[in-house]
Amino acid sequence: MIGFLFGLLVFIVVIFAVIIVHETGHFVVAKLSGIRVDEFSFGFGWRIASRKKGETEYSLRAIPAGGYVRMAGMLGLEGEADAGPRNFYRAAWWKRALTILAGIVSNFIFAGILFAIVFAVPMASVLPPGEPLAAAGFHSGDVVVEAGGIAIPSSSLAAAADAIHKATIRSEGHPLLVVMRTASGTTVQKEVTPELVLYVGVPQSKSSPLQEGGAYVIDTVNGAPVPRGLPEAVLGNGAPVTVTFHVEGATGTAAAEHTATIDKVHDAGNTPLITGEYRAAWRIGYEAPLPGEALPLAVRDGFVAVPQYIGTSLGQLWHLISSNPGGLNGPNGLSGPVGIAIVGAQQAKAGWVSFLEFVAVISTSVGLMNVLPVPFLDGGKFVLLLIEGVRRKRMRPEREAIITTVGLALLLILAFYVTIGDIEKIPLFLKGS
């Protein structure tokens, strides 16, 4: 129960930050455009508290699932507040367009700043419990200096990961000598036996215990200890094999048995795995330390990370629509408020840097969602403005209000549908909290 309440608190904090940034974008550009802003609200529903400053009322409402900036004359309906020349729909077309798009841009800028902070902060190495290095007695904060005769650089995460990968590939599962510099500064060397980890694309069968995106340590192959060799050869070279496995990093977990034809195994690249495809590799359980980038480089990489994440998200969305057997609300589908609360609580427990990265991801996601040309979202409002620009005539306010209401209804239905899938994740979260 404590874990659930913590998750709820994290959700409110994350949504508050992201929504305030989004609505502040609308607010600032509206003010600069001479449009009167009557209310700046966080949340929906009944008003809990409010304070009027100047011509704008700042309010806190009961349902912390969004917010809005209410501008005079925005809907153009009879009976709406009239600010004369300062009405929204009396502003120049380009001013209204910038005001609508400002929330999206603000979310992307906010995400870029948070990503930049993440890149600038040095991070210690991570040795997940239950994996080979941790099992050998090493700890997070220790740094691998050499593995299997290959020097491990510390200049960047990518360079360290590449060198570790070369060492484990060359080992083919045989013990390799690891030289480690501990957090206390001493140098220790031990032989460490890699484990064979199987990374899963979309399972061929919905009943498969291997879940999409999962990472599983192979314990036995055809009833025998895991042999040494290239991963694809160990796993049958396309012939059916019976494997037992446990989730990577899990301790004290009973192995499950699964018979599968594990073909299409490879050990290169980070491209998304397709249905029936696997990636297998020898691993020792090491996440190299991050030295922390200089501020100019961190800012550059932080803002580059935003379009990179957008591209990845669009690819994942297409994958969900085209080939995900679990559907949009399955275990690997979209997440709504409950899912955000669960993941947010996990990231908050992992440390403030992980939490900032999570907030950056949510801010990017909110900006991306609002790009969608769905009425009620900013993208939908912008499309209506484009139509007005082409026709040189505004759509009747009553018709626009109906279209917006339909868009809102569709979004609420989608949110309800996704939340059904999120609720199924709550027992696992409570168990681990």
State the share of residues found in helices, binned by percent.
Answer: 40-55%
Q: What oligomeric assembly is this protein in?
A: single chain
* Cα distance spanning the termini: 9 Å
Percent of residues in β-strands: 15-25%
Overall pLDDT score: 83
Structure description:
The protein is of the alpha+beta class. It has 3 domains: 2-121 and 336-432, no CATH class; 132-192, no CATH class; 195-280. Helix content is 45%, strand content 21%. It has 11 helices and 13 strands. It has helices spanning 2-32, 93-120, 132-135, 157-171, 231-234, 295-323, 337-350, 352-371, 378-391, 397-423, 426-432; strands at residues 37-53, 56-71, 143-147, 150-151, 176-181, 187-192, 195-200, 215-221, 224-225, 240-247, 256-261, 265-266, 278-283. Strands 7, 8, 9, 10, 11, 12 and 13 form a 7-stranded mixed sheet that branches. Strands 4-3-5-6 form a 4-stranded antiparallel sheet, with helices on one face. Helix 2 (93-120) runs antiparallel to helix 8 (352-371), helix 6 crosses helix 8 and helix 7 runs antiparallel to helix 8. Mean pLDDT is 83; it is low at 428-433.
Question: What would a concise description of this structure say?
Answer:
By secondary structure, the chain is of the alpha+beta class. It has 11 helices and 13 strands.
